[in-house]
Amino acid sequence: MRKIVLTVLALLCVAPVFAGGKYRTDRDIPYREEFARCKLDVSYVKKASDRPVIVWFHGGGLTEGAKHTPEALLAQDYVVVAAGYRLYPEAQVVDIIDDAAAAVAWVAKNISRYGGSPSKIYLAGHSAGGYLVAMLGLDKHYLAKYGVDADSMAAIAPYSGQMITHFTERAARGIPATRPVVDELAPLYHIRPDAPPFLVITGGRDVELYRRYEENAYFVEMMKLAGHKDIVFLEEDGFDHGGMAAPAHLLLMKYIKERL
pLDDT confidence of 229, banded at 50, 70, 90? Predict the structure, then answer.
């Protein structure tokens, strides 16, 4: 684990110059016609080709929130896809994960039309979104249902994601938020050595939600014990659960650039 101390001055030094003005955004593209929330916004630079793709899933505990494109991700001419998904209780948690899989499958099959490379797809999300991308990267059956191999993803980047069974699922079963459960709806349950690369980011250990730092630290160590060789763990010292997303975008952009 690397502990990242991010000051305002440091952020100003590493922050990219946003290239949002270059981008065109096609909004509300349905990836599942039958559900109103199952839509995508695709931001891309005209005439670009073979660009890395970031598929972004918003947070909100799987019960709230809406698709949005973080401006910080529009900095390197990458294709950025903001994915919406159904929310609990309209859909069960397993159905929400399935929505996320359908969104990623749409991207894998269509993103070349927007200048993106199907072989350079990075899945990223904050909080509930981090949980979703971790589940897709580890439990291969969700993407396999749509003809996509989870191992073809360039990397999985959960920001402060739930690695035990999600608290919304536990609440639906009458289990309190402070009682951990690890079952088939937990990324920890699906740890495997041959999973895609992982970039795991949390806020500071003393200010994170429900000790989310320790939860992610345990996940990373278990991945390593299982034999996974390509996992990076970063802690943003001093940033709480909500505040850690903005600097995490910068860390993700740096991570992708270093892997190209």
Answer: very high
Q: What mean pLDDT value characterizes the chain?
A: 94
- pLDDT band for 136, please (50, 70, 90 cuts): very high
Q: CA-CA distance, 249 to 157, in Å (whole number)?
A: 10
In 3D space, the residue among 199, 203, 197, 198 whose CA is nearest the CA of residue 235 turns out to be 203
Say which residue the tokens 């690695």 belong to.
163
Alpha carbon distance 205, 100 (integer Å): 28
| Residue 8 in this model has a pLDDT that exceeds 70 | no
CATH among 3.40.50.2300, 3.40.720.10, 3.40.50.1820, 3.60.10.10 for 2-259: 3.40.50.1820
Bridge partners of residue 55, in order along the sequence: 81, 123
Q: Which two tokens stand for residue 59?
A: 């947070």
| Token pair 């035990």: residue | 164
Does the structure show a pLDDT above 90 at 27?
yes
What is the token pair recorded at 152?
Answer: 């073809």
Q: Where are the chain's structural domains? A: 2-259
Percent of the chain with pLDDT strictly greater than 70: 92
Q: What is the reported pLDDT for 2?
A: 72
